[in-house]
Sequence to fold (298 residues):
Amino acid sequence: MSEQNKSIVIDENAEWKKSVGWDKLTPDERVELMEREGIFDIDAGDDPPTYELLPDQIDYEHKKLSSKFKSWVANWAAQIGINGFIKKGMFSIKEVKGIENWQKLTTGAIITCNHFSPTDSFIMQKISKRIKKKKLFRIIREGNYTNPPVLKFFMRNCDVLPLSSNMQTMRKLLRAVDNILKRGDDILIYPEESLWPNYRKPKPLKDGAFKFATKNNVPVLPIFITMEDSEFYNKKTKTAQPILAHTVHILEPIYPNAELSRAENVEYMKNKNYDMWVKVYEDFYGKKLEYTTIKKDK
Fold:
């Protein structure tokens, strides 16, 4: 990004974070606080400053030869890296259930997944390659593209679709989403819109993913990843924490209802997606989903 084009996007949650002493809290303490307060759409980590993404700074559909080449290199190298992470025990895929639900899709689709770690995108990429669909694009936050915290080359070239605070760039993104889905590729969206480290419960969902699906008349494929301690330990951590084993639950696709309006379809698909995630959570962990949120009088 050209330095002269950088414009910092103000964090709308800055005042609230300051009021609760955000900087002094650990990620686990932040999660406890946000669940208790019923705030589910703020990352538990410290996101780097977000800079405005301008239209000429992104080639969403890889129309340029240079973009195609960088995408190919990034995805090739990412697969090698993912295999290396698995061998080193940095994360583990124990089982993939319902893979036939993804395989039977004949159109592009919106893939939804719970967001609990930066590695969950690696898990999704690994599975998508196994299914041999055309491509899996990922919606990411603006700052992860304009000011990526790590692995800058991969964050900008592994088939990512960054959001933007710039309206012209957002219009460009929306056109790209339409075209990607029309040609049969899939788009991964984290509808919770927040990352809470190793948080096992499904969080309430936002509308965005379901608006894309409804507008383009494509299915939503809900995926929920559960986790459990494995018998292996990560010796690189100070406390020798057990490596988490992940089970990927690929659920039945949700199709738009032709008898409903767009707004009604968004609610219908969102609620059904959430209910399906809750069922997986309760069945896998053997307990009823409950939040610690304190109900307050209006």
About this structure: The radius of gyration is 19 Å. The longest strand covers residues 220-233.
